[in-house]
Design a protein that fits this description.
145 residues; six-stranded antiparallel β-sheet; four-stranded antiparallel β-sheet; 1 helix; elongated
Length: 145
C-alpha cells in the first residue's frame, strides 16, 4: 500500500516538474524614447507600470557622446499621507549608459512604487538620446550598475 502511494506521489512530482513555469516579468513590452538633451535639463520617459522586482531593460541606440547619465525613478508612496512622489530608485544612484542593451538594478517595486520611468541628463555633449525600454525584464543582458 505505502509502496504504491510512494510511486504515485513520485510520479506526480516528476510530472509537475516538466510543466513550463510562467514568466513573472509582466511589463516587458518595449517602448521607444527619443530626446534632445541640452544643458542640464532632465528628460523623462513616460511612466509605465512596474509589476515585479525584476531589473529595468534599456536598449540605448543613440547617445550624443560616449555616455548618457541615466537613472530609474519610481513613483513611491509617502508614508501616512496618501500621496506619491518620484524618487531615484537606481542601485548606486545615477549611472552612465553607452550604446547597447542593458539591465539596470533598481528598487522601484521593493520600495512600494508601482510606476517607473527613466530620467536622462547630459553627460558632456548636447544631442539626441534614443532607444527602447521596459520597466520589467526577461532575458540576460549585462548590468549597467
Amino acid at each position: 500500500m505505502f509502496k504504491k502511494l510512494g510511486v504515485i506521489i513520485l510520479s506526480a512530482i516528476m510530472f509537475l516538474t516538466i510543466i513550463p513555469t510562467p514568466i513573472f516579468a509582466a511589463n516587458v513590452k518595449d517602448t521607444s524614447f527619443s530626446f534632445n538633451i541640452q544643458s542640464n535639463a532632465n528628460r523623462y520617459t513616460r511612466s509605465r507600470a512596474k509589476q515585479n522586482s525584476s531589473s529595468t531593460y534599456v536598449h540605448v541606440k543613440q547617445v550624443p557622446a560616449v555616455y548618457i547619465r541615466t537613472n530609474v525613478q519610481g513613483f513611491r508612496p509617502t508614508s501616512g499621507t496618501g500621496s506619491n512622489y518620484w524618487a531615484n530608485e537606481t542601485i548606486g544612484g545615477q549611472i552612465s549608459l553607452r550604446k547597447g542593451q542593458w539591465l539596470i538594478k533598481q528598487l522601484v517595486y521593493e520600495n512600494g512604487g508601482r510606476s517607473a520611468r527613466l530620467q536622462f541628463k547630459k553627460h558632456s555633449t548636447n544631442g539626441t538620446v534614443s532607444g527602447v525600454w521596459s520597466p520589467d525584464s526577461v532575458g540576460s543582458y549585462p548590468y549597467a550598475n
